Amino acid sequence: MNGIVTVVGSLNLDRTIRVATHPKPGETVLGSGLTERPGGKGANQAVAAARAGAPVRMIGRVGDDPAGRRYRDALRHHDIDTSAVLLTPGHPTGTAHITVDDHGENTITVVPGANAALTPHDVTQAAAAIRTAAVLLLQLETPLPAVLQAAHLAAEAGVRIILNASPATTLPDELIQAADLLIVNEHESRFLPTTARSVCVTLGARGAQWGEDISRPPRVEAIDTTGAGDSFAGTLAAHLAAGTPAPDALQAAVRAAATATTWPGAQEGELPP
Length: 273
Ligand code: RIB
What we know:
single chain; alpha/beta; nine-stranded mixed β-sheet; four-stranded mixed β-sheet; globular; binds alpha-D-ribofuranose
């Protein structure tokens, strides 16, 4: 059986509009085609890992609202264990407000909602899901204390920790030290301290580099780059959890990220009605 990937992270509803070109500060432009689809870096990565064949468990929070319940159902359709995705009274499900231009490039503003309520206690309650995983996959869209608690539990149990250090922020050294592998994009790599143990840098349309290995993507017709980095991280985690050698895992992740740019939205799919 493939190794389990446990993801601690965000779940958002992505509200996306299309524009010809992104507005500059102070400028108004006309957009079109408002859609609402499942997103959030944590859930996007969980779905990508499940697609790549890993048994996946998700730890996070959604609102105690119809959208939150629909989102949990959608993850179950991907065979993701959502028993640690908690409903959060008094907080709406997180939202991301996304603008995609004619080149498929996006800007994203996240309103965390229930994601901001994830606590170290929530993570401890789900400790068994972390301790029995092959890989713990983390990002930075949920509060840092919860992320740190997950890293502590995994480190104690000898579970491999992969941290996608996105969105970019200043990181405590203990988190950098705990991560067996950091995934960052070129922009985020500039913020990284030199104490990181192993770093994989995503290079957008040029692929990704991990140590000496560079992997180039196949040619695709990109329509929406939203979530491509998440497809990369989730696929890489799934392959490493399954014991795939690093260069092959990198190649699979680069391919998955390229494919993810050919569908609208972050997860290729809608929320069930
Ligand atoms: O990485 C893409 C994701 O960032 C989107 O799905 C959005 O929800 C934000 O979290």
